Amino acid sequence: MDPRTLGIPGSETWETITLITKGWSDDFKYTITTPSRGSFLLRLFDLEHLPRKLDEYRVMSRLYEAGLPVNRPLDFGPCQDQKTGYLLCSWIEGEDLETVLPHLSPSEQAQLGQQAGHLLAKIHACPPLHPLTDWATHYNAKLDRKIAKALATSIEIPGRDAFIQVINANRFRLAHRPVTLHHGDFHVGNLLLQPNGQLAIIDLNRFDAGDPWEEFNRIVWDVQASRAFASGRIDGYFDQAIPQGFFELLSLYIAANALSSVPWAIPFGQAEVEVMQNQLRDILSWTQHFTYTIPTWYTSTNNGS
Fold first, then answer.
1. pTM score over 0.85
2. How far, in Å, CA of 293 to CA of 290, rounded?
3. In this predicted model, what pLDDT tens digit does every residue of 30-57 receive, in sequence order?
């Protein structure tokens, strides 16, 4: 599809249009360049998702106005075909952090992790669009669904019973948790390293609301990229003062996300299933089947060490 045929305002000035194939979003994403106005990011989506995409535009605006390094939203609306919607925003120059990290020293990795933690804390300082009134009720129902799917699948889930056990042992900790805005998929794969050495946050399409600590449920991807970065992310988020009970809830949230990852991967094929199975094995190794409260990959990055 050539987006210039959709009647998007200003599209007559677009010089080059390049499809972006990276990522799991259902959107069609493009890099747009113009002779005089620079580059843009264009997301095209099915028009039935317009209400959700309007909220995404609002979240992006809220974070940009709060000074966070996210794409600046520029325009949004339905296309002339009445089947497609569009979201146009500024382009952020930078390299995928996941690609860059292995080439940096452990100290540099830790410092970037601390920076990521600070950014995540700033996201959580913003109120959600649609607050939840009772996080424990909401998330316990979600846990029940995840466990039911895990028990129903015939595909191997390594350590399944250990994951279920740590979830059930820590459910009581969900009571009275605060609810904040979530990025929804915060990890090394959705961060860019800009030329100025600062991180930028991308792909806000999975935003939601919930316990701010749940946003660490995908830190496994960070650990696999760099243990120093993952440790720094925790230290930066808490300004080096990790509160009591954090690692216990982290175990629950990581276990819940991991337990559902194998059933989630099945439609994407055996290779993706094996990626998730191996990730579960890593989690079991880092925690000695959850007999360790603090995983073996975590090391304090205080003073960048």
1. yes
2. 7
3. 999 998 888 999 999 999 999 999 999 9
